[in-house]
Amino acid sequence: MSFALEQTLHHTREPVPRARLARDVYTYLHLPMVARIIFFALGLKDLLAEAAEPDTPPWGVPLGGFWITVLYGGVGLYLLSLAACALRALRTVHWPLLAAVAVLALVAPVAARLPELVALGLLAALCVAAMVAETLSENGRRRQIRRLALEEQIAAEVEQSRWRRQHL
């Protein structure tokens, strides 16, 4: 999605719409992504430290409401931020991301009763499944965008080489 966002920003030539797009995608929608990554990492650190304590059962204790919110809610909000970026910049709805958020919300109450490491493994499996679904649903768009970006880069390099030969 990053190449697609970059290309959309690159092709938005009018200064005001370009500034608004950059502001929305790289500030308002990017900030929740970064915050959720940090929040998730801190929660994961504490969770794994707790699971490693000698008196903890082998797979950990049940997660409970707080940790399920930190882990599953954090991933869900991250995926929502990705979907919002796609909607704002690309004008497309990424249904697999939204479906993944719904699945996380449905599975979270059950996962809250699971041991910590089992719930974490389930979250990882759900994330992998969501990313596979997202990749498969793109139907070649990612490959096309990468090809166009490479063609653009090669054309720019050819033009730079031509200019250098004439002026240097």
TrEMBL record:
InterPro entries with a match to the protein in the record: Low_temperature_requirement_A
Q: Which UniProt keywords apply?
A: Membrane, Transmembrane, Transmembrane helix
Entry's transmembrane regions: 25-44, 64-86, 93-111, 117-137
Q: What is this protein called?
A: Low temperature requirement protein A
Species in which this protein is naturally found: Micromonospora sicca
